[in-house]
From TrEMBL:
Organism: Micromonospora siamensis
Alphabetical keyword list: Hydrolase, Membrane, Protease, Transmembrane, Transmembrane helix
Residue stretches making up the Band domain: 23-182
Protein name: Regulator of protease activity HflC, stomatin/prohibitin superfamily
A molecular function (GO) term: peptidase activity
Family (UniProt): Belongs to the band 7/mec-2 family.
GO CC terms in record: plasma membrane; side of membrane
Residues that span the membrane, as ranges: 6-28
Length: 292
């Protein structure tokens, strides 16, 4: 009987030790911090990762994750500053920097961050115009981060690391208007590029014309090159080049005839010499009669 009682007593002691150990030993992971409440009051010392002993019944430990948490903000309907209705959703990245504040100052801080993010998203979109929302996402993201971070960092012990707008849904009518605007812009750019190309080509042609004018034989060489190019296509038309110098000679002769001044009144007219062997006159009369 004595040995049986000793065994039972030993078993009871072991069970009590195990129960006491289970109530006293707490494990904190590397990504966690432990907050101990003793009779409902927070102890100042924050438990770091590892094994920790607490007083059974009197102490209660709450583990807080220090990892970055990602929450998606559901699509929110908002009206921009230029009265365009949009549907915008976003994503928020945050983490706990003060576990005591996150537990004591706010209840269910993930839900609280989500509500603040929804309100901030509508507010920021309402202060911006459509072009800013579509073209300057970095500015919108920075404003969202500052608006969400203001009520959460110091009071709640949370740090908003990043806020990004995921998608912006436009009305169908606005999509069609923007498509027409983009098409008109592309057409305008194409016309500007074509006009610029024609302008540059005309400048090059003018330079080439001046360079060829300085060289008398350049025009003739270019004409011969054109004849070679036409003949290479096996055409039945024969092109005979006309000397450019001959055209220039006739042009200079005509200009000289127009610019010759008329004789003044009272001045003798110098007769034009006639070649030898050709009688004077119009060719239809004989020699003039000699008068005595």
């Amino acid at each position: 009987m004595g040995s049986a009682a000793a065994v039972i007593g030993l078993v009871v002691v072991v069970v009590l030790v195990v129960l006491l150990a289970s109530l006293s030993v707490r494990l904190v992971q590397q990504y966690q911090r432990g907050i101990v409440f003793r009779f409902g009051r927070v102890l100042e010392r924050i438990r770091q990762p590892g094994l920790h002993l607490i007083v059974p019944i009197a102490d209660r430990m709450v583990r807080v994750s220090m990892q970055t948490t990602v929450i998606g903000v559901p699509a929110q309907g908002a009206i921009t500053r230029d009265n365009v209705t949009l549907t915008v959703d976003a994503v928020v990245y945050y983490r706990v920097v003060d576990p005591v504040k996150a537990l004591v100052n706010v209840r269910d801080y993930p839900s609280a961050v989500l509500q603040v993010a929804q309100t901030a998203l509508r507010s920021v979109i309402g202060k911006a115009d459509l072009d800013t929302v579509l073209g300057d996402r970095e500015r919108i993201n920075a404003e969202l981060k500052s608006v969400i971070d203001a009520p959460t960092e110091k009071p709640w012990g949370l740090l908003i690391e990043r806020v990004e707008v995921k998608d912006v849904a436009l009305p169908e009518g606005m999509k069609r208007s923007m498509s027409r605007q983009a098409e008109a812009e592309r057409e305008r750019r194409a016309r500007v590029i074509a006009a610029d190309g024609e302008y540059q080509a005309s400048r090059r042609l003018a330079d080439a014309s001046r360079a060829m004018a300085d060289t008398p034989g350049a025009y003739q060489l270019r004409l011969l090159q054109t004849v070679v190019d036409v003949a290479a296509e096996k055409n039945s038309t024969l092109v005979m080049p006309f000397p450019v110098e001959l055209l220039r000679f006739f042009d200079e002769f005509a200009n000289g005839t127009r610019q010759q001044p008329a004789p003044a009144a009272g001045q003798p007219v110098t007769p034009v010499p006639t070649p030898q062997g050709v009688p004077a006159g119009d060719g239809h009369r004989g020699h003039p009669e000699t008068r005595h």
